[in-house]
Amino acid sequence: MNMYEQDLPKTAANFAALSPVDFIRRSAEVHPERTAVIHGSINRTWAETYARAMKLAHALKSLGVGKGDTVTVMLPNIPEMLECHFGVPAIGAVINTLNTRLDAASLTYMLNHAASKVVIVDREFSAVMQAALIEARRVNPACSPSVIDVDDSQYQGAGDLIGQNTYDVLLQDASAEPLDFQGDEWDAIALNYTSGTTGEPKGVVYHHRGAYLNAVSNILEWDLPAHCTYLWTLPMFHCNGWCFPWTIAARAGVNVCLRKVTPEGVFEAIRDHAVTHYCGAPIVHSMLVNAPEPLKQYGMANVGPGKAVATVKAMVAGAAPSATLIESMASLNISLTHVYGLTEVYGPCTLCAPQEAWDELPAAERAVYNARQGVRYHLQAGADVLDPLTLEPVPRDGETIGEIVVRGNICMKGYLKNAQATQDAFEGGWFHTGDLGVRFPDGYIKIKDRSKDVIISGGENISSIEIEDVLYKHPAIMAVAVVAKPHPKWGETPCAFIELKPGTQVEAAELVAHCKQHLAGFKVPGAFEFGDLPKTSTGKIQKFELRKRSGAVAAIDV
């Protein structure tokens, strides 16, 4: 023992476990009267929101929920969802947020796998949840969670109340006495399921420390000011809203809830509530860019009643944004910050940090720099591109392709009940993303493709993202996804699925000519299909669904 270890113990006076639950308590103590949540006619302060979160914590305890128990929630972006992010972990329980677009079969698996003790469900999703609960009990009679209904005033559609109690009644007589998180910062705070495109979905387990540090990193990456106004376009169920429920609490900001994302809803919220920040997948931003001009002018002309024009800051992730999209967002006075991440790393873990020198570049060239996935988050220990075989860093030449890896505090504990998958994911002391990329001399990383999305045609590797970037430059295209299509001669050929902007038309031959101006011949798609693209509730295009459409396209001789 050296002298710095002797008689210098860790005590309650000099050490506390890091937990984002503390953020809401501080905001309630320091800024009790500041607005915390806006949802329709609901306008609650941080003191009121904190009290409701504590009431939820005490109510859950009365239902027998304790440390390590799973509380499953199926809610849209409403105040109750925000409260669950504090009330559930305050008692050491684990919040399991479910994708609201899942089918009953997927929900059945998750309810049983998570051993859900309580299910909190919005009335809009009661039918599918009821079906899942019945099947879950049939498969596993031990699966018998308490069910709590949320009857949101902003929802006017159909849906029965299926639970033993409603959320408001549950909170009505519960204590609002503050509860501090008493566990270890390595304790689980959240369970999120991957999309499960191959086999059963995996349960990704987050810890309190990682959630705390990613929330703080969000502040650092964005220079997020105190009392910012954040619009919930990103689903709170997706990686716990990239940890932004905790981030906004740390800044005593305003959470503007948006139950359904539409251009009208987004622009109206920006104007009426002086929104300063929001997050979303490229398709969300594309939706705004392609909205009718009168709507855009209404929403962006005067941000906030009586306030001067302001730049709205937005984060984009889920796919590399095209240079065209970045330029178009700038024309809307929306500043786009590009981040990259996965469920396993709490949402974003790298960002394209802007450099002053880029400001002097032409807009198109600057957008190319901004489209890179960038550098590690402040509080992430490392991000690199490694040779998949040797696990050595690839040269920083912007050309040599390897696997993108990250490590540090902003990485999951592992996969629930799946030791082998956890071991494989952390091979060599890194989390392996499965994404292929390059690293440039300045250290910035750029994705070249998802490993499963690389198209191998005649022995040549083709990046689907490269082709998509070219197609996005065509003025008629709103969304595009390129996947492999079987080919009798070349093995595979690129196939482009195209979603056109409203009121536009374009022939496949025109797109072939467009691609040939920017791509080598073997990279030009050999097939095109036009129509709406399948998307997740977070706006990501579902390429695995497109791959199933093997007989739905016609080949073009290029």
From TrEMBL:
Residues 25-416 form the AMP-dependent synthetase/ligase domain. Belongs to the ATP-dependent AMP-binding enzyme family. InterPro entries: AMP-bd_C, AMP-bd_C_sf, AMP-binding_CS, AMP-dep_synth/lig_dom, ANL_N_sf. Residues 466-540 form the AMP-binding enzyme C-terminal domain. It comes from the Bacteria. PANTHER family: ACYL-ACTIVATING ENZYME, BUTANOATE--COA LIGASE AAE1-RELATED. It comes from Jezberella montanilacus. Coiled coil: none annotated. It holds the Pfam family AMP-binding. GO terms for biological process: fatty acid metabolic process. PROSITE patterns: AMP_BINDING. Keywords: Fatty acid metabolism, Ligase, Lipid metabolism. One of its GO terms (molecular function) is ligase activity. This is Fatty-acyl-CoA synthase.
